[in-house]
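Pasting as-is:
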Amino acid sequence: MLVDNVIHQLFIKFETMKKHIVLIVVLFSFISCKKESTSKAKWETINVNYLGDFNDIFILPNDTLMILSGLDPTFQKTCIFESDDSGNTWNQKCVDKLVIGGFSNFYCFNHLKIFSGKFRSNDGGTSWKSVGDFNGGLYYFFNNSTGIGISGFTIYKTIDGGNTFSIVYDTLSYVGCQYVQFFDNIIGYAAGGAVFDSYNSGIILKTTNGGNFWAPLPTQFKSIIGMSFITSDIGYIIINLQNGGIDNANLEGVELLKTVDGGNSWISVNSEIFNQFNTMPFECYFLDENNGYICGSALEGSKILSTSDGGKSWKVEYETSSNSHVLIKMIITSATTGYAIGTNGLLLKRIEY
């Protein structure tokens, strides 16, 4: 009997300990979930004291911010802005737009050496000169000497710092390239498309030898309006589903596609982004296979969307109140930080808290 009582008491203590352990696990789970759910992101407005439209933004390795304004509020000057302290203070340099014709994008080697259009600056945008035989478009440089230039869907390569370019890919097409991305200076992708009347076509070109040779991926795409590869094999694109023409307006929408084999095959991830948010994306960026962002034009103003489940679901992180401020471009620099630029001097910085 004594042994039975001892065993019985031990059993009661054991059951009590089990309840306590379960309670502790549930408590910690609740705390963890609560902490995760209260994590928020905010896009803060940075005042640059400028009312012109921003066209492009570039982040240098030391976190120096470079911003391009193709035309100032008087439509007479093109301006370059530089900040070495995350946007707290700015250095502004402007040049008469009649000299260079205004820019839509730029490529910054550092805070002094800048390429834009067919012009080059070696003093941070104070003065410009025309160099080389490439008339302008997208740039991507592997180093100070070797780089890629894309105009429409003609791809050029330079090995002398942009003084001369040679054509490495050319095709007769209405399609133009809006996106270029490289990995390890060997594997790269260029993508774009066009939609007008009843025409809707897109293309992705791939290189596996540093841009010397390019070939189209096998899939027949509609117009590509966003591209983001997170590795040389895993990437996302957004395609415009609109068939063109007033009669096909009801077919307008977008679809998010994913590849895990370097673009040889694609799977549909989400085709309800436009319908759900009334937003037409023009840029997407994925940090990894789960976390990504979309910047797009809404019925009024613009929106920035984010996902944490690989694009299956999205939420609004930021939206402009009206068309007085429309986003032009977004760039994500880390898991917690990003920037977006727009019209009327709009500059946003993303922070998590």
